[in-house]
Design goal:
Radius of gyration: 21 Å
Structural class: mainly alpha
Strand content: under 5%
Distance between the termini: 38 Å
Number of strands: 0
Length: 202
């Protein structure tokens, strides 16, 4: 931990020199993202493995990613959003719950389900987990105008001084032929990066 959590990361399945141009790599530390995860994982003092994982998830998934996106998008839409389960009193309580009560074998969210058993209906308590990710890779495969827009943006990104154009073409090919959902996420990230550059006038 936390290295094994990154096994599924497509950027770790290729050498950095295959992804990025040499001049760009010379200006950055390719090991910095994993070093940051390791730092967050080991930051809590005298914590269990589970609590270290939870803390890292709070920091990198909630604080650095999900809440930023939700807050900014809701702000742009004029919507005020709040997070009742992130109330400081609930956070403090969660930190006092012993690790064995947070996870009972393979029973996920066991403590939360027990606490809510007399409050939430049974179908909600025992519903299967549903992800929040958009099936962008599948949409991209089946919708030609979206595909053309996304692929063009990725190829335009290849004209900048950061990525190896061959890697970007490889990502497009993998999306088309191997795993649309998995590589669709990479296409989305690359597309949005190019749109960000264009929006900033670069």
């Amino acid at each position: 931990m936390p290295d094994r959590l990154q096994d599924y990361n497509f950027l770790h399945r290729h050498a950095a020199t295959d992804i990025f141009q040499a001049d760009f790599l010379a200006q950055v530390d390719p090991k910095a993202p994993l070093s940051s995860l390791r730092e967050n994982y080991w930051r809590p003092a005298n914590a269990s493995t589970l609590n270290r994982m939870l803390y890292m998830d709070w920091k990198t998934t909630l604080h650095d990613n999900d809440l930023v996106k939700v807050n900014r998008m809701c702000e742009m839409a004029g919507i005020e959003v709040c997070y009742p389960l992130l109330d400081q009193r609930i956070i403090d309580l969660s930190c006092r719950v012993p690790s064995p009560d947070k996870l009972r074998g393979q029973k996920l969210r066991w403590f939360y389900k027990q606490a809510m058993a007399d409050f939430l209906p049974e179908p909600i308590i025992n519903k299967s987990k549903h992800g929040f990710g958009l099936p962008f890779g599948i949409w991209l495969k089946d919708h030609e105008p979206l595909k053309q827009m996304a692929y063009q943006a990725v190829r335009d990104l290849g004209k900048r001084e950061f990525f190896q154009p061959d890697f970007l073409e490889h990502a497009i090919k993998m999306h088309q032929t191997v795993h649309a959902a998995y590589y669709g996420e990479l296409i989305w990230i690359l597309m949005m990066l190019e749109f960000w550059f264009v929006g900033k006038g670069y």
